[in-house]
Amino acid sequence: MKIKSLQHKIKQILLTCRQIVHLPNFQLSTFNFQFSTFNFQLIKRILKKILGWFLFLILTIILAVTMRVLLLASFLIPTGSMHPTLIPGDFIFVNKMIPGPRIFKSWDFLKNGDFSMKRLKGYRKVKRNEIIVFNYPYSNRHKLELDFNVFYAKRCIAVPGDTFYIDNGIYRVKNSPDTLGHYPGQKQLSETPVEDFPPHIYNCFPDTVYGWNIRNFGPLYIPGENDTVAIDTMSIRLYRKLIEYETQQPVDLRDGQVFISNQSVSEYVFRQNYYFMAGDYVRDSRDSRYWGLLPEDHIVGKAFIIWKSKNRDTGKWQWKRFFKRL
Questions:
Q1: Same domain assignment for residues 141 and 34
Q2: 216, 291: one domain
Q3: Does one domain contain both 90 and 10?
Q4: Model-level pTM?
Q5: Torsional sign, CA 262, 268, 269, 270
Q6: For 271-323, how does the pLDDT look when each residue is reduced to its tens digit (9 = 90+)?
Q7: Can you tell me the distance from the alpha carbon of 55 to that of 50, in angstroms, rounded to the nearest whole number?
Q8: At 257, phi and psi to the nearest 5?
Q9: Which of 28, 36, 125, 187 has its CA 20 to 30 A from that of 160?
């Protein structure tokens, strides 16, 4: 009875439509729905294929996100601060397993804006002379903070426990025979007259009290996790922003003493590792010589290959740079 009633209603609808739009006459008596013989198997096969493609798409997205977060990332080089190793238009792959992938400590950052990160166990630590991609720590010139919108690529020159210095333009680490960074560029800088450098290029971190410059810099101790460093009115100029970042407390100088959150201190135990970073184009690179040390929690990973490159001026592919190891 239900099928006949449905057929009758459909016939009435078709008759009404024919009257409105003047459909040609046809034999409604021949209009018959064979519901009992309807091919449900065909629909089942179609739905099965749609479901299969949907699951494939979901798994592909999950795999891509997992790789992006935990293993591998691609970055475009926008400037010439790493010339000649990297040039504008290079696309590099970064291995996040060195020193290890970062994840948020809590998903509450979506509500409260707390972007604290923790690092999962990686393959190994960062070594000297490796090219590292990191979040720029000093977008706010007055304090150190994690900026997820700005990435830099620089070469690691000194690691935790090193004492770094620049001797007449040449990068050195105490008690290490290693050649650090791009030596030809350093040699050229050492032979350039001081008068050829504008003051904002020549003068370096931390301030005019120390008087360090790109020709003669340091010595600067690079602290590591659990390192105890003596703190006084001079050394605090080197480490003040690092301590404020770790403690989230103000650091003040009063009456010849250093105060952290109104508590007088003469030493400080660092909570994480730090690194000294520098660009290969030593004459024009905003790096640790100017802004200080890089916290480990800012590191994305180690660059290991240029996988493609496009000339920024002509738009042409630079095939000779494809798949060039770093």
A1: no
A2: yes
A3: no
A4: 0.80
A5: positive
A6: 999 999 999 999 989 999 999 999 999 999 999 999 999 998 899 999 999 99
A7: 9
A8: -125, 160
A9: 187
